[in-house]
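seq as requested:
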Amino acid sequence: MRKTRRVLLVGAALLLAAGNIWWFTRGRDAPQPDFVLGTGLEKTSVPAEALPSLPRYDAAGTQWREQGRPLASIGDRVRPYSGDGASGWKPKSYVTIGVEASAGPDELRPIFLDLARKGICDVAVVQDGTAPGPGGEIEVFIQHIVSVKDGKGVVVNCAPAQSAAAPSSASK
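struct tokens:
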């Protein structure tokens, strides 16, 4: 009788342990974010009076506009980063864009997707209504676009476009 009881208790303990292991290690598919950004400590300054003239993305027309006029290429607005790298990561170049003050993830995703597809991975986003500092300039962090989901949920990784002036690794 004692032996049977011990076997049942050990069996119940093993069953509980196995249930706990299964419960805490079962796979769960966590929802993936619409976009992933990385940032260092690098900032850029934009004169407050330049905010209305910053390029803006027109999601309805899927094109970039500057002061209401279509831009031939957002790539023409990319400029080199000349500041000191405050962290281990330092952007080589970036583009500064303007967005509405109320812009949320649904408005930012198509913007970041378009930039990622063009190989423009570093962006300074200035929201309308951002208060300038004492010198009349708005300071914003330069964000690094890591990946963005397209309209079908497929993740698009941002691979920086190589400059036409940069040497190709194929020529080595």
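The CA atoms of residues 149 and 155 lie 4 Å apart.
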